[in-house]
Specification:
It contains nine helices and seven strands; from the N terminus they run βααβαβαβααβαααββ. It is 35% helix and 11% strand. By secondary structure, the protein is an alpha/beta fold. It starts with 7 loop residues before the first strand and ends in a 14-residue tail after the last strand.
Length: 256
Amino acid sequence: MVGPSRPQIVLFGSSIVQMSFGHGGWGAILSEVYARKADIILRGYYGWNSSRALEVVDQVFPKDAEVQPSLVIVYFGGNDSMAPHPSGLGPHVPLTQYVDNMKNIALHLQSLSDSTRIIFLSCPPVDEAKVRQNQSPYLSEVIRTNELCKTYSDACVELCQELGLQVVDLFYTLQKADDWETVCFTDGIHLSAQGSKLVAAEILRVIKEAEWTPSLHWKSMPTEFSDDSSYDLVSADGKSTVNSSEWTYFWEEQWD
């Protein structure tokens, strides 16, 4: 482990999490925003559903870990919401079981420490036409509909309200964009850079508005090694140096 120790923000989920550092992804955005403030740790597993996640949640988040995460952002639901395969195989999880799985994941995370915070991301919509168009010859037909996505998203939001958890309603969030089906996805399911910007903005909003002590909003967190130094860049007058530790001018977007 490297030092100094920083708060940990863990992203736990399926492909939308695993791929969140590519295509201008929301994980990469959070990593940039929290640079020198917190470590963004990726635990994403392509193709997983909530049942598979529940099987290993105690290995990903052991209760006896020396350091527990300050925040866990959890996303499962897209694969769960796929229509069931006639064989009984595949990622589909019945709605009631999905809710139970997510509740048990939340309860495990809540047991890690009194200061571990949780945000759930609900099931996003899909571009149904592109999903049908992109069927793989190596896979059975993938059936993903926005009717199913909304059902699972609503169930996730309702569960979070019941448990007092913070939640980002991705089904609603992505549809705020004009031409969302075209601009928010790379393949009808996974997020484009524009889709990720919407997700990152909502996550940052939720963190900012959450009444957590201490606050985990990036502006409220200390910046590592931010003291003034004679080794900083020299100012235009040539008589002093300029501390660059809080600069964000190089961000593609200025996040709140």
